[in-house]
Amino acid sequence: MNMLSVYSGPEGISKFGHFQNVLSVLIMLVSGSFVTGLVKYVSELDSKSKKDKLNASDYFQGAFTFGVIASILLSLFLFFNAEDLSSYIFHSKEYKDLFLYIPLALTFVVFYQIAIAYLNGLRLIKEMIAVRLVASFSLLLCGTLSVYFFGLYGSLFALVGMQVVGGIYALWLMDKLSIFSWSWFKFKLIKKVQLDLSYYWLISAITLISTPVVLFFVRAHIVSTNSWTTAGMWEAMWKISELSMMVVTSALTVYYIPMLSKAATKSEQLKLIKNVMLLALTSASVISLIIYLFREFVILILFSHEFLEISDVLMFQLLGGLFRVLGWVVAFHMIIKTKPFFFIISELFFGFLLFIFSIVLFDRYGLEGLAYAFFINNMLYCIFALIYLKIFYKSRKIGKFINV
Question: Is 63 exposed, middle or buried (CB count within 10 Å of its CB: 0-12, 13-18, 19+)?
Answer without folding.
Answer: buried
